[in-house]
Design brief:
Blueprint: E1 6-8, E2 11-14, E3 18-20, E4 25-27, E5 32-33, E6 38-41, E7 44-45, E8 63-67, H1 69-77, E9 94-96, E10 109-112, E11 115-122, H2 128-133, H3 138-145, E12 150-156, E13 158-160, E14 165-170, H4 178-186, H5 192-199, H6 206-221
Length: 222
């Protein structure tokens, strides 16, 4: 049976900077569903905010996508936090069913409304997840289970809304699922040929290509 190439959005989310957790750390991770169209720019949804622009946002991480089915797993594993596990909680802009890290590939080109998006990297969890869910080991949980989501760059800006479908346009690297990409780049023992391949993939974000290059240098000196 062929893999679907069109997916309905469960939500298109945006957020303002608000105090996060007991520390009151400024963060835009708390995203809320939009009820109408919004302009998708080179750096993300118009009006969407990130407090830490060094590690979040920018052209290679303009939009974050998180699979909604992951929330079912989180609620099962952490029932005391179940009320928090709803679309938008991981700071994602796009929420769908049917697309996961095992299905989506680096370089995938997708159309959403009038915008064209391209998968650029996986999501690397940061300490804001610990604060968001008030769990000291939330980062480690995400690293272990790989339920991190992924980022898009915006190839063509345009208007998009929650009623639009996400439609696959091109898949140039079907061998590089987001799951495999993350596993290879962060594996304890480096797979040098695979990492060398990543260094040469222009679809990969600049920061992850740099990480891959550093891993190659470290492996050569080991």
């Amino acid at each position: 049976m062929p893999t679907p190439t069109s997916f309905a959005l469960l939500a298109l989310n945006s957020g303002r900077i608000r105090p996060l957790g007991r520390e009151g750390l400024p963060s835009g991770i708390d995203k809320r569903p939009l009820d109408g169209p919004v302009q998708v720019t080179r750096t993300g949804l118009a009006g969407d905010e990130q407090a830490d622009r060094l590690h979040h946002g920018g052209p290679d991480k303009a939009l974050h996508h998180y699979p909604a089915e992951h929330y079912e797993s989180w609620r099962s594993e952490l029932p005391a936090k179940a009320a928090l596990f709803v679309p938008g909680a991981f700071g994602e802009n796009l929420s769908t069913h049917g697309l996961t890290e095992d299905v989506v590939c680096l370089g995938d080109v997708w159309r959403l409304g009038g915008a064209i998006l391209q998968v650029s990297q996986g999501r690397q969890p940061c300490r804001r997840l610990n604060l968001r869910f008030d769990l000291p080991d939330m980062i480690e949980r995400v690293r272990q289970n790989g339920r991190s989501g992924w980022y898009y760059r915006v190839l063509e800006p345009g208007l998009a809304g929650p009623a639009d479908r996400l439609r696959l346009v091109e898949r140039p690297h079907p061998e590089w699922s987001v799951r495999r990409l993350t596993d290879v780049l962060f594996a304890p023992v480096p797979d040098r040929p695979a990492i060398a391949t990543l260094v040469g993939l222009s679809a990969l974000s600049g920061s992850w290509r740099e990480r891959a290059a550093r891993r190659l240098i470290e492996a050569a000196g080991a």
